[in-house]
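Pasting as-is:
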Amino acid sequence: MAKWVMLTPSSISIANYGAVFLVANLLLAILQILGFRDTFEIDSKTTIRITILRTGVAIVFNLILIALSFVSPYLSMILYLGFPIVNFIVSMGSK
C-alpha cells in the first residue's frame, strides 16, 4: 500500500492505505487488550479504557484522513506520514 501511495498518490490509493491502516489499528487494539489482560498484574479496566480511548481517537483521525484524501490527496498523504510519528511521541509520553 505504501508503495502504491508513493508511486501514484491518488484519492483511491490513499483511501485504501487508510482502510488498511484502520484495520491494523483495530487489530493492534484487540491484541493490546487481550495481552494486557492475560500478562500483567495491573488494573486491566484502566488499561483497557486507555487503549479504547487511544484507539477511538486514532479511528476518528483515520476516518478524517480518508475523507480528506478525496479532497486533497497530497495533504492526506503528508498527514498519514506524520501519524505514526505523533503516535510514537504520544505513547512515549504516557510512560
